[in-house]
Amino acid sequence: MGFEAWLVFVGVWFLSGIPLGPNAINCIAVSSQAGFLRSLWCVVGIIIAGLVFIALVSVGFATILAAHAGLFTALKVAGALYLIWMGLSAWRKAGRPADTDAAGDGAQSASRIVVRSIGISLSNPKAVLSYAAVFAQFISADAPLFDQLAILTPTAMGIVAIIYTAYCAAGVGIARVLSSARRKLAFDRFVAGFFVFAGTSLIANEAVRRA
Length: 211
Prior knowledge:
0% strand, mainly alpha
């Protein structure tokens, strides 16, 4: 891959990762509740999910999903239901202190944050097709796939880390605003509502598409 093509990939990948979505909302929410350093475990989870997507793309999983509409639909519905479940759970806990870990230090455990972040990222199987669509534009059939992925993968994951670390930092500022119980309750319910809205929107869009 030439340097100019690499720069184009950097620009495309960066712009595609900026829009606010479930991953970003999760980073902001965890940072506002548990602090910036603890919220970086969200970034770890998102990167792990990204590596899973790249692995699936490299073995042609995106092609399989595109060819089997029923399987793809089932995965999308399952992912949407997971987001709705996340939202309902967050709504029930709105306004409460952050969950504590085994040590009882008032912070969410790293493993729990990572697992939840992976789940949120993987809840949208459409991301596999997004990865495939972007990566396919920069992979040449005339060069070894592994050599190209060795460049694209760390580049993509580095950009992902930068974007979501910035969202985690944004959560710190939001935490300062949430000084009152009333504001915290409103924010927690916004986050919960966002996850429910995202999940129901995915199901509704799928229903309209299949109608």
